[in-house]
């Protein structure tokens, strides 16, 4: 590594990272290159503590079910439930089993115990109620929205009508649906009617926001709005599951990205008076450039939540990509970004991507990792990354 390239690299600290970021951030995206490796959520926890203590952050959002996360937020803000219960029911994608997530909630709860409500840290999930195997039933989100509105407005539908249209949850969540669009109920007459109902309920929620907020609270209205965003997104996603065209998977990934971006937008607006938010997810969900991955022998492409939210927030959004060098026998080649960074002496490093790219004296090739669950950084995208955190070995 040349001296000029080395000038773009510093040992990792919270201060070294934030020094590379634009001022007046509202949302800071910290990506990870793979799931299930504790080094990355542990790094996230360390960074979040720094941001809370030195940069005025008061909230964190992670790649997990937005509805399930309500239980985790209730625990960290008000001590409702137990930590074991929240780890079992407050996460999706198996994230409740990660020790770093348990430590995050424990630390947030301890931090909040002696603070007034307006200063307490909040926890969010920003993903839809989705798993790799499919999507949940829209039942919980739709009835949550309906019950909130029905307590204060005269609605032209009954709960019995909604239950009849929804049918059994098992029809929505059948495991064969993800691979067989013909098993999906997302485009049945009942599902189409539910999409109209959900849209009308969302309009009522918005139109009567002053009345509803005064009768309940801003937090209650925000939760109802979360139900509204979720049910409309879920019904749209289930309709996508019934799609039989070749672009089905790309379209589903794009719809998931829209749900994520809309949730992040709502979180930023809710937190506007309290401070910026840290969001943690896979790099592919937070990057500004087009995302892609192999699926069924093809390469599917979509625009991520990060790319979408960047168009809304501009320079108030920053993306920090995380990557690593050696993982057992999987060692990056010398002409990859990770290979060059592996020559630095630091176990963890902060990299200025623009300075690093300007100092390179050769063209780097994208890393093709041995483990397909890991995504290397494309050197051609360095101009669209605000900072890189490099972990030398995991």
TrEMBL record:
<protein>
    <submittedName>
        <fullName>Erythromycin esterase</fullName>
    </submittedName>
</protein>
<dbReference type="Pfam" id="PF05139">
    <property type="entry name" value="Erythro_esteras"/>
</dbReference>
<dbReference type="InterPro" id="IPR052036">
    <property type="entry name" value="Hydrolase/PRTase-associated"/>
</dbReference>
<dbReference type="InterPro" id="IPR014622">
    <property type="entry name" value="UCP036794_erythomycin"/>
</dbReference>
<dbReference type="InterPro" id="IPR007815">
    <property type="entry name" value="Emycin_Estase"/>
</dbReference>
């Amino acid at each position: 590594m040349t001296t000029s390239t080395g000038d773009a690299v510093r040992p990792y600290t919270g201060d070294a990272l934030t020094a590379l970021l634009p001022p007046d951030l509202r949302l800071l995206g910290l990506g990870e290159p793979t799931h299930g490796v504790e080094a990355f959520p542990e790094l996230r926890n360390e960074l979040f503590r720094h941001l809370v203590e030195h940069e005025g952050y008061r909230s964190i959002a992670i790649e997990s079910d937005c509805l399930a996360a309500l239980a985790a937020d209730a625990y960290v803000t008000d001590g409702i439930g137990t930590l074991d219960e929240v780890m079992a029911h407050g996460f999706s994608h198996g994230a409740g089993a990660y020790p770093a997530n348990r430590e995050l909630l424990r630390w947030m709860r301890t931090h909040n115990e002696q603070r007034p409500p307006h200063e307490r840290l909040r926890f969010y999930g920003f993903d839809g109620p989705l798993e790799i195997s499919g999507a949940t039933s829209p039942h919980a989100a739709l009835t949550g929205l309906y019950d909130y509105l029905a307590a204060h407005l005269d609605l032209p539908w009954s709960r019995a009508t909604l239950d009849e249209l929804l049918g059994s949850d098992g029809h929505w969540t059948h495991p064969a649906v993800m691979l067989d669009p013909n098993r999906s109920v997302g485009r049945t007459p009942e599902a189409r009617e539910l999409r109209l109902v959900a849209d009308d309920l969302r309009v009522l929620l918005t139109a009567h926001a002053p009345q509803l907020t005064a009768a309940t609270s801003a937090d209650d209205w925000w939760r109802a709005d979360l139900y509204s965003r979720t049910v409309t997104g879920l019904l749209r996603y289930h309709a996508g599951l019934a799609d039989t065209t070749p672009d089905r998977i790309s379209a589903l990934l794009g719809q998931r990205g829209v749900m994520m971006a809309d949730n992040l937008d709502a979180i930023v607006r809710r937190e506007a008076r309290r401070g910026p938010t840290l969001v943690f997810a896979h790099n592919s969900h937070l990057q500004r450039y087009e995302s892609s991955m192999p699926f069924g022998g093809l390469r599917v492409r979509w625009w991520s939540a990060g790319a979408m939210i960047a168009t809304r927030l501009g320079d108030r959004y920053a993306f920090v990509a995380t990557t690593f060098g050696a993982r057992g026998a999987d060692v990056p080649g010398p002409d990859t970004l990770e290979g060059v960074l592996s020559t630095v002496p630091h176990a963890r490093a902060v990299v200025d991507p623009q300075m690093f790219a300007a100092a390179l004296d050769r063209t780097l090739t994208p890393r093709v990792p041995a483990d397909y669950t890991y995504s290397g950084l494309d050197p051609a995208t360095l101009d669209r990354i605000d900072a890189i955190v490099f972990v030398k070995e995991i």
